[in-house]
Amino acid sequence: MQYIYKMVLVLGMVLFCAQSVAANEQVELKEHFLKKIDEVILIVEDKKMTKDERNGTIVKSLTPMFDFELMAKLSLGSKWRELSDAEGKKFVALYVERMKQSYSSKIDAYKDEKVEIKKIEQTKEDRITLVSDLVSQTQKLEIAYKFHKPKVPVASKDKWLIYDVEILGVSILKTDMAQFKEFLQTKSMAELMDALAKQS
């Protein structure tokens, strides 16, 4: 009986420690996220920069938070495994450039919105979802950022990386997956890369 009591006590301590570590990581991630938002706002408000300089600086600042490479691979689904190393590198480069262009265009639409954190959930040991509201004078837009923690740290990247963004429940990654799948039903991978190149 005493042995069972000790085992229950040890198990409880392990679970408590695990929960404490998870809570600390969530707090750390939230603080880092808000710090990045403040950094971006300061850049946006810097009137000395040209639009291209501003957008380039913001993309450079945010890039360490995003796992664009993983997003590129996931967006192709099973088709990714059919690519050669050279084709894979080319597709990733085109996808990354496309994402950066997309974020640059969204920066241009910025109109003094504020970011409010609604909640942060750790669904798995290596998965965290941060749900925020982008608040303007006329509306409130819910945006969920999905993070994963790579088993092996990625050079020049953050510890937790965004691999998907949901805007009002619509996943950017799933949208890309659906569009690419439909495109590749009638066209080739080379044609998809040509189309991505024209968008960048």
Write the layout of secondary structure elements.
Layout: H1 2-44, H2 51-62, H3 68-76, H4 85-108, E1 114-124, E2 127-135, E3 140-148, E4 161-167, E5 170-171, H5 172-184, H6 189-199
Antiparallel strand pairs: 1-2, 2-3, 3-4, 4-5
Q: What is the helical fraction, as a range of percent?
A: 55-70%
Assigned CATH class: Alpha Beta
> Could you state the CATH homologous superfamily?
Tgt2/MlaC
What's the β-strand tally? 5
Uncertain runs are: 2-21
End-to-end separation in angstroms reads 68 Å
Describe this structure in words.
The protein has 200 residues and is α+β, with helices and mostly antiparallel strands. The chain has a single domain (2-199), classed as Tgt2/MlaC (Nuclear Transport Factor 2, Chain: A), CATH 3.10.450.710. It is 56% helix and 19% strand. It has helices at residues 2-44, 51-62, 68-76, 85-108, 172-184, 189-199; strands spanning 114-124, 127-135, 140-148, 161-167, 170-171. It has a 5-stranded antiparallel β-sheet. Helix 2 packs across helix 4 (85-108). It is globular, with a radius of gyration of 20 Å. The relative contact order is 0.12.
Brief digest:
It is built from six helices and five strands. With 200 residues, the protein is α+β, with helices and mostly antiparallel strands.
Name some characteristics of this structure.
disordered N terminus; alpha+beta; Nuclear Transport Factor 2, Chain: A; five-stranded antiparallel beta sheet; globular; 200 residues; 56% helix; single chain
